[in-house]
Amino acid sequence: MKLAAVDIGSNAIRLQITHVTHHQAQINFKKLEYVRFPLRLGKDVFHSKKISEESREKFIKLMKAYKLLIDLYEVDDYMVCATSAMRESENGRTIAQQVKQDIGLKIQIIDGNREADLINIALWNYIDHKPYLHIDVGGGSTELNIYQNRQKKASRSFKIGSVRSLDHRESPKVWKAMKAFIQENIDKKHAITCIGTGGNINKVFELSKPRKNKRYLDFEKIKEIQAYLDSFTFEERVNVLNLNPDRADVIIPATTIYLTAMEAAHSRRMIVPDVGLKDGVMNVLYERNKDKA
């Protein structure tokens, strides 16, 4: 069985095609294709509330390309999810309808709670009975989830994101509300561990040069990597550190969001499992198709 997930984010748009196989009682997910295209829809939307004509044309071409790959791989089922940029855009739903009519690709524009739920599905293997704060930083929004005893205690989406932060488009009140949400919902009697998801924290983790099988970062190490990144100019982050241009400018403000949330929770450690929205989508697709496999 072949499944495809498309994640239409504010900073980039990702496609993953996965082959699911069964051997006895074991289920295997093998990645067949992964494409990440740096189309920054959030740049338009967070400035003018609309996706520009230039971005719309590129987006249509990209959806055609992704649909061709989905067809060529003979995918059995797919899901396309669009997050904060498209849901805040005045013309996002019109563009989604155009894609459905002209290309035959159905786009679901999901809210922050649904986005968090999909990511949480992929996180389940990393959560036990201890308290956890899950922080997912995207280009336009940050989703927070608080867990205790393998139960979600609280969840909320905030209009704070890496692309939005570039031009300080977020309100100071939103930062204050995010900190208050964390402090009001954590159990201060017990130390809480954070779980960080998103492309920027994955890159911070990679730059930390972790030991084999280590999947966590200490608070001080994250601050150290941020200071290291900040010691380079944008051009140096691209040419010396070999970061993609659309990563090189947002990674520092994104790291600030993770650190701010950790500080509010008085957390000293973050697990970085390298999963995201597309992984949750894959799990949903598998569950609704497993009887056909």
UniProtKB/TrEMBL annotation:
It comes from the Bacteria. CDD domains: ASKHA_NBD_PPX_GppA. Transmembrane segments: none annotated. Residues 27-282 form the Ppx/GppA phosphatase N-terminal domain. SUPFAM superfamilies: Actin-like ATPase domain. This is Exopolyphosphatase. It comes from Echinicola rosea.
